Amino acid sequence: MAWMTYISHWFDEDDWYEGQQRAKMSHVKQVGLIAAGCQPWNKDICAASGDRFAYCATLAVYIYQLDRRYNEFKLHAIMSEHKKTITAISWCPHNPDMFASASADSLVIIWNVNEQKVVAKLDNTKGIPVSLGWCWNEVDAVAFVSHRGPLYIWTISGPDSGVTVHREAHSFLSDISLFRWHPKKKGKVIFGHTDGSLSIFQPGSKNQKHVLRPESLEGTDEEDPVTALEWDPLSTDYLLVANLHNGIRLVDSESLSCITTFSFPSAAASVQCLAWVSSAPGMFITGDSQVGVLRVWNVSRTTPIDNFKLKQTGFHGLHVLSSPPKKKSCSSQYPTKNHHTSSTSEAVPPPTLTQNQAFSLPPGHAVCCFMDGGVGLYDMGAKKWDFLRDLGHVETIFDCKFKPDNPDLLATASFDGTIKVWDINTLSAVYTSPGNEGVIYSISWAPGNLNCIAGGTSRNGGFIWDVRKGKVITRFNEHGKNGLFCIAWSHKDSKRIATCSSDGFCIIRTIDGNVLHKYKHPAAVFGCDWSQNNKDMIATGCEDKNVRVYYLATSSDQPLKVFTGHTAKVFHVRWSPLREGILCSGSDDGTVRIWDYTQDACISILSGHTAPVRGLMWNPEIPYLLISGSWDYTIRVWDTRDGTCLDTVYDHGADVYGLTCHPSRPFTMASSSRDSTVRLWSLTPLINPLQINILTDRCWDDVIGNTDRAVESGAPPLLCGKVSRDIKQELEKLSGNPRGKKLRWFSEFFS
Length: 751
Prior knowledge:
- This is WDR17 protein.
- By secondary structure, the protein is mainly beta.
- Among the domains are: 95 residues; 63 residues, no CATH class.
- The strands form 14 sheets. It has a 5-stranded antiparallel sheet with strand order 1-6-5-4-3, with no helix packed on it. The chain has a 4-stranded antiparallel sheet with strand order 2-57-56-55, with no helix packed on it.
- The longest helix has 12 residues.
């Protein structure tokens, strides 16, 4: 069984992330990770057990665990095995190390959380599971259900292992939103439906299908989905039911009667999720669907005890931890740090607690998931965030680019229709685009300090987003509704932008919309790249398997060169920043080819990827160093002189799309993936001899050289880029012994 798991030990949000250690020690080191947000589509996407909680992005499950040394929750594991959207997760009530997840490819996986590995797989669920739950009275059985049933029960091990169908729980008249097993009564299970009704099954009792609809819906065809169901921990028969529009009821599952209907302060309020507070009998919390209002209730009152507006966006999931972190002692030997503020201004500071003579707020920590992907841990007693990870992407991140004049900022483009700009020092989002652009495939920063990003979308053409103003200021529609796979802002001529599309055109325009060239290709164009040595030269990658080079200084619409050799479509192309006339291309044939424009030839074929190649990046200091990312989930580092693969990185849990290099720290790079994460990497272990030469004060010829020397076969690594030359020039201006500054500047350069 093929599986991969991805472990982290996140010591602090400001510390570097240490990647998973593998049998073969990787040269490339993971030094940072921007986690995905929580997906907003499915219901059972948040779970908790003891001192752990979990949420799922589109393709990965994130596990957080209480680190008792620091009394804080840390990212413990990223478990990624599903190839399609995860639809539900569930923690085993009998064994905190057992965890189940289901996905849209009709797959259920059982995980061992402690060992971060797959225990068992069921790869044909006969429908997409919309809800998943461990059977409370069966140690090794998990149940799942698709929209109309039936309820399947999978016994994972033992003599009765296999899948059985619940005898009565099938043929429902309305889709199932979710189901919950009773924690004490063996075999009792309740279903919530999209029409607002409940179905209850209990061995030895009459089955009840589609009962207890809200009174206002009786006799109508209107739907009001059940958004939450939770059994009362202090009663064998009572449970809380939330309907999206008709609010919350406490119902008796035996008499099929409503005990209490709870009232909201506003008729506009609607409930998305709820959870009992185990530390405070009779108390529960709810999350509103439209705005991030957390409400605290007691079953003896029909109105909330208190209301907190935690975020502008609505809730998606709630869980109360049964094993929360303890209060920190004032006499702690460790210096305190403020970990309780949001990473963005999107979070609203909790208001002062209103006075309530009859009740006090329960102690406890609530895991909060929001519709915008935000995930946080809220201390209800102290009325503050323990942490809030805000604005993470919830879908594939197709592209990432460092800002040229402020390399602490990294922009990402996603399937979720947004561009986000991250501060890589805090790993937090500082800007996010308005959204609703469809899929954003490609981005390109404006040259210099213009503070704009060009984006290419699946259906809305191209646009320019003013990051500081937070709005789209220009749109390009020359490709119509065709997908725009690549957009590239010329950094030699800031007025020109190139776009490539499924319509077969590469179009060069000015930023004010004046079309300069339309280069027609025989099929879809997936990639383009401006030459870094000639402002009038651009290369393209096409579905017809060819690479083309165009020269803009002529009026001809024909390419100067056509390079053939790939056996499947060409995606991205990249000109070398250090070697004039050298460019590379990545293809669906799994290879990267190096082309020499001056020789009209392919000079190297890099083979090793087992799936289509997407990400491509030349190192801007070492002229032969090339990095590629692939649908085989790996990043490969190549020595293009002889085609050797210097390292293979396996940490991503899905296709690797974007690669970008830090402008002032050339051995720091970022990658983006279908696993919805952005990861930061250090390449410095690959060039250790250079660091030793600097530390031992070897002559400049052993550190900095020209490209011709560096690309000689077997030559040791030499720095050939602008950043290293600038450091050398600044050092040569200094009088006396500049060794201290030399070491400091190169330390920053390599870090």
